[in-house]
Amino acid sequence: MKDLVLSIINIFKYTGKFFTVIRNFFFNSIIILILVLIVYSMIPEMESVLPDNSILRLDISGNIVEQKKPISSIEKFLTTSMNENTPDPETLLQDILDIIETSTRDEHISVILLNLKNMGRAGLNQMQTIGKALNSFKASGKTVIAAEDYYSQSQYYLASYANTVIINPMGGVDLHGFGVYKLYFKKALEKLAITYNIFKIGTYKSAVEPFTRESMSAEDRLQSEIWLSALWKVYTDGIKRQRQLESNTIGNYTSHIDHELQSTQGNLALLAKKTGLVDKILTRNQVKTYLSNLLGLKDSSPHIVSSATYLETIQPSFLPDNSTTQKIGLIVAEGNILPGKQKAGLIGGDSLAALLKKARKDDQIKAVVLRINSGGGSAFASEIIRQELLELKKSGKPIVVSMGSMAASGGYWIAADADEIWANPATLTGSIGIFGAIPTFEKSLENIGVNSDGTGTTPLAAGLNMTRPLPEQLKSAIQQTIAYNYDQFITLVADGRKIDKTRVGKIAQGRVYDGTTALSLGLVDKLGSLSDAVKSAAELAHLKEYSTEYIQPTVSVQQHFLQLLAASARKITAATGVNIPFLEQIHKIFQKHFDTLLLFDDPNKIYAHCLINISI
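^ thats the sequence. predicted structure below, dont judge the formating
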């Protein structure tokens, strides 16, 4: 019996040792791999020289953004390590511009081939900026080619900047105009017995209309028609100019497509060529032959380099430059405005305020350009940002705002006090208004036999209890707070823009304006690009020689480590062709899960937000 017990004990003992050896081997292997990646990342890369007459494939994949989410590049690598055709979720606007501008000077690049197949959302002003860079590329004597099976409306706008636009015989060009279409939930809320308590100031503040109406209000329809028409004119004028079309070509195409198709027996590709929207109808194989002939290659295929590969070889813009002590700080504010600290892709009240403070404390930063691409959000967070912006102004450093596709409502709140505001004709701005929205479910619960009851020391004891109706005292208090905040909004715009408060009140009311109209109203100072805003900031700071660099949050050790892993593995994959899919598991070990982010998270439940989703 004793021997049996000892035998069992020995079995467990040696089994434990076996698993200990396996566990140690596994974790030691991971550590060795990580060390190899770190060492490999420190090895200088050999400068790659492209052959003459190379083609740069400009891959625009996913949404075009001003600021990438910090996890995106790593996740993109990990997902594409097993499938190189997986599209990027985002493409950074500045990366596109850097690639085009560098290739313009690169004697080895002769052609840019636009790859728009996986392109997502893009602001019209962003596409104009890219188009301007493409025109500079063409002006240097080089060629831009667009060759797609099918063009969406946004894809075609960029394609129109090409010297030659090619379409597949089974393809077509989708031009249909701009529109804003919303779902309205009033009847659904009534059927569900949900009480939506709405508080707002501003006749044109339409963000809450989906909860209170069954259709678009006359005021919202009027303002939408005005700015939609302005943006559509910018879009169509750009295409007419690039393609040298007659003035009525696009109007006939969009309004009478059924009639126009009769002339081509329903062939969309042929109609696109007939109307001058495209130049050639070619199959995919014929496109390859066309590119070879374009470069004078009869017996070989052209060398094509992708955007990602080319980007690895060039110097990105706005990196820290230690050669000068006079700098323009560039801060990007993109996304919904939320309280507290937020990651890139969202504007945190505390996060953005910290960057403004960082710029104020840095003696080398002589002026700041704040690039805003936001429809707003939390009024509280917007005010926290504005307060820090005022502190920056007190320090004597000029601050210039450059508006992206949208800088409305809360986005305008944080812009109003800048020394200068630059916008684009296609920018949407204004929406000076305030609203609050609080749903309660007491009727819904009652319908299923659930009731809320109790007692408290005051009429407000239940607070914002969504199982009970809002007390009348609380409703009145919220509405008064909304009115106060709206007056505060009007006042800060009047003071910041030096416009009479009564006049601001007339042009406010939550109304949205395009950039050109905003300029005529005094809401912005000048029309131009981000680079124009940077030059203006330098002039305000009396700088002749300077560098421009991003002001970004301090990167944590964890983020540095994750970026190092991704970059190192990417180099190994590029050098050896060997993928490392299990790095995804390593990434999961070290990367925290994203926090749940709620748009409606203002501590006072008061929002300066412009909810517009343009159908392009």
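The radius of gyration is 29 Å.
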